[in-house]
Structure formats: C-alpha cells, structure tokens
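## retry 2 of 3
previous attempt timed out at serialization; input unchanged, resubmitting
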Amino acid sequence: MIRWARSAYARWPAPTGPPQERQRAIYHRRHGTRYVFGAYDVHHDRLRVRLRPRRRGRENLAFLAQIRDAIPARRRIYWIQDNLSANWTPDIRAFAAGHRIELVATPTYASYLNPVECHFFPISEFVVNNADYVNWDAFAFALARHVCHRNGPHRDKRIRILEARHQIAA
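## retry succeeded, writing output
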C-alpha cells in the first residue's frame, strides 16, 4: 500500500515502514555496554579513539597516559573534558600536573564547546546506526576502520604541507 504525502509544492509517495536511521528499540545488550573514549589533535587533524568497558577515573587516566606518550613531552596538551566526576579524580589531576597537561572544563550543558564532540556524530552515523555487530570485537574493528578512513593518507599529505609551510617540528 502506498500512502501519499501532500504538500503545497509536490505530491510524492511516502515511505512505509519504520524509519531506518534509528536504533532498534528491541535490541538486547547481551554483552554489556562499552564507552568510546576520544581525543582530537587540533593541529594535526587526527582523531584517536579507544573502546573501554567502563568509564571510571582509572580508564580515563590510562587513555590520558596513552595520548601523552603519543605526543612529544615538550608540547603542552590542553585536555578539554566535561564535568563528569571520573574525569577529575586526584590521580588525573596529579598526572596532568606532572606531564604538561592542562585540564580544561567545559561549562555545564555546553558540550558543543568541546572540539571532539563533532567527531562523535559521524561515528554514531557510520558505525553505530543500523548495525548489529556479533560481538564487541566486530564493533571495535568497525570503529577502527572508520577512524583510519577519517584520519586517512589524504590528511597526512595535508599535514606535511602545513609543516613545510610553518616549519612545525613533528
């Protein structure tokens, strides 16, 4: 059966069935939930993500240490994060103070000020929506493929041009 949608400008057949851009309401979380930790390097336009089973201070500190190890120690890192209590543990504050990391809090209800947030929409659109993964390994693989495509070799060429232009030490 075709339903017709009416408009002042056109008449066209309206799609039947459920909308395809939503997550199904009847799916089961047989293997629990996972959290995506993300860091965005503004200068090199690189996104780094990790998939973790919990979002506690310990996992956040481990991710922060991975990012610190990937960036030269002489460079200061500005770590923008929301006001979740797990992001502000004494261990994280002590690690940041000792490793040239400045912790920056976003104002309450203003997550749009965090530059990494706009990179989570494509992840949800291309990796999460309309996907039924067999297990978390399959999801992690799809997430890694998306991030590799997003960070792809075409971005490396642009970075080399910018470094040559501005003599940025890599």
